Amino acid sequence: MSLERFINQQTSAWMSGTGPDSDVVLSTRIRLARNLENVLFSTILSLEKAKDVVTQVHEAVSDQLALELLKMEDLSPLQKRVLVEKHLISPFLSETSLYGAALISDKEDVSVMVNEEDHLRIQCLASGLQLKETLDKANQIDDVIEEKVQYAFDEKIGYLTACPTNVGTGLRASVMIHLPGLVLTRQMNRIIPAINQLGLVVRGIYGEGSEALGNIFQISNQLTLGKSEEDIINDLDSVVHELMAREQSARDALKQTSPIQLEDRIFRSFGTLSNSRVIETSEAFQCLSDVRLGIDLGYITHISKSILNELMVLTQPGFLQQYAGGPLRAEDRDIRRAALIRERLELDETN
Amino acid sequence: MICQECHERPAVLHFTKTVNGKMTEVYLCEHCANEKGEHLFSGHPAFSLNNLLGGLFNPDPQFSANPSFHEQEVHCENCHMTFKQFLQSSKFGCAHCYETFESKLTPLLKRLHGGNTIHHGKIPARMGGQLHLQKELQQLREKLQEMVTSEQFEQAANIRDQIRALEKKLLNEGGVQ
Fold it and tell me: Which of A12, A250, B22, B119 has the smallest count of CB within 10 Å of its CB?
């Protein structure tokens, strides 16, 4: 059954770590918010009408796009959690929406959420830095749906959304970026306010309010009105390129000024991951970040680059419990996490 | 000190808000503070950017100082949402709300979107060629202004010709309809 495939399939295509600039940029995400004309927004919609919206959207895509419909009501809390951890659905869709559903592609690079805060949240994910390509893909899906439904659109202020922070283009473009060099050289505290001034937001990997676990930051546009989609992604793209350049020079500087300390840190972390029997999320992320940096800098050669992307999803509480086949207490999760990481490392070492 | 919102209960929450460099003193009772979404100080777990939206707007002198405003509160004819309800949730009930609350919304949009109030992005295909052409025309006019300001007259002349061609096209298409 396909639901089981989405849940059990460990890694999605966007986690492969093979995209452009993937030594620094982990993944790219594009989200378009859309609402149907003449239907109340999902936040105050009746159950009956919410079901209608799901049917209407499902019919609109089913001819042209191979997307699998998953209804939130059919999923267990644990299954929903796994989908959240894979970034295929939002926490809001999983917990708060009245009659939420998601249309997900085989490769897990497309997820159309229905009855989230807006009727439609078209989301596309890609590995590495691929803003233009991912936006094109989201636009294609948008066009397919628009052939069958009428969107709420205003000539002056564009696509109308439940929250005015999304009105206009309804576009949120995000890039997940690994910046250990800038964190180690303590530059992030100066850089984040500068990025904010450009109308972009910097957050931890699990969205608003989350801390930057494993030196991974999510950078996205704040403004959705007044600029074209292309301008929005171009602005984001140039900031990301600037960050990549600075990260590179921070890495070079570290390697030049304190090579032995850097190497020590990387191999200590590798040692922790290869040997620990109990490990918490934050420590695991920090060590994974160090090991990934070690791979990028050529200190570690026998481990594949995708390890950070993969393990940061696989060692989340939902996934661990999915593997264990049931709920786990926090300390048991830490034991499972340590075991999973050791297994994954051994797998690469034997290959 | 009495709550400045309900003028009944004693104010228990006092804080200074600075919006765009303008400082405002706020005195609220617990009830009104919760209602106005100012409970960010109580460590509400679901605190997010959205909760701040209401704060961006309050206290609106027209909104809080004029008692008759509450009595004949404007509400959306389509979904019955009032502006006060919108401020609490930061979410509109339907697309029609944007029209209903347009006058109040414009300053909010400016604050949220760096002073912008006009959409310059994608247009649904069904909106027809007219709107697409108008958008293009508007963008060209802005570009023309830019060129003139930066004294790049050769390019400006080029854009002017494009504008003329587009205007003609728009006029012809308009005539057909």
Answer: B22
